[in-house]
Specification:
about 20% strand, single chain, 7-stranded mixed beta sheet, about 190 residues, about 40% helix, 7 strands, 6 helices
């Protein structure tokens, strides 16, 4: 069983913001796999299905970004998902829009959603896919940047990165995460 978590903030106010890139990947996987993400459980919206013969849970925490771990921990415990079968997808300031980066583990990199998950799980040894959102322009605070929508000239490249991130998840399920890393970290 795989637990695939996309980070973001709930509600229409945040739906199109940079901070919701993780939600967008879950929405794309939901569309591709025909798995509705509508069920409410563990302070999250989830969808369950079978992909390539394996059960997958798609999850969008509804806790707001800074408390994401409060949704991920109970789901992981209830489902008895080991660290190797947990994948978290989230936005990253240190990557330019359009870039994605797959990693086997690592620090939070200052991302508050990841800080919460790492603190609640007591480990940083789980897979992640980072979606580039770029750094704020001079004079724009990080919170204002992440809670703003992408510029129109960025949107096509970002939607392409969301599509590639979803394809990377599919590659992980078809082969393994190292194969996905080798293919998508170019």
């Amino acid at each position: 069983m795989k637990l695939i978590v996309g980070l973001g903030n709930p509600g229409i106010r945040y739906a199109r913001t940079r901070h919701n890139a993780g939600f967008w990947v879950i929405d794309e996987l939901s569309r591709r796999w025909g798995i509705p993400v509508k069920k409410e459980k563990w302070k999250a919206e989830i969808g369950e299905g079978i992909v390539n013969g394996e059960k997958v849970i798609l999850m969008k925490p509804m806790t707001y970004m800074n408390l994401s771990g409060e949704a991920v921990r109970p789901a992981k415990d209830w489902l008895k998902v080991d660290d190797d079968n947990l994948l978290v997808i989230y936005d990253d300031l240190d990557l330019p829009p359009g870039r994605i980066r797959l990693r086997l583990s690592g620090s939070s990199g200052g991302h508050n959603g990841m800080k919460s998950i790492i603190a609640c799980l007591g480990t940083d040894r789980f897979k992640r896919i980072r979606i580039g959102i770029g750094r704020p322009d001079p004079g724009v605070s990080v919170p204002d940047h992440v809670l703003s929508p992408f510029l129109s000239e960025e949107l096509d490249v970002v939607m392409d990165s969301v599509d590639r991130a979803a394809s990377a998840v599919e590659k992980w399920l078809e082969a393994d995460f190292l194969t996905a890393m080798n293919q998508f970290n170019k």
